[in-house]
Amino acid sequence: MASPLLLSLSSSSSPFLSSPSTSFLPPTSSAAPHSAGRTKAAVSVLRALRAEAATLPVLSFTGDKVGEVTLDLKSAPPSTARAVVHRAIITDRQNARRGTASTLTRGEVSGGGRKPYQQKKTGKARRGSQRTPLRPGGGVVFGPKPRDWSIKINRKEKRLAISTALASAAVAEDAFVVEEFDEAFASGPKTKDFVAALQRWGLDPKQKAMFFATEFDDNVRLSGRNIGSLKMLTPRTLNLYDILDARKLFFTPAAVDYLNSRYGTSASDDYDTDDEDDAEEEQEVVEEGTTVEAAQGTSLHTITFCFADFNAQLD
Question: Which of 93, 252, 279 is nearest to 181 (CA)?
Answer without folding.
Answer: 252
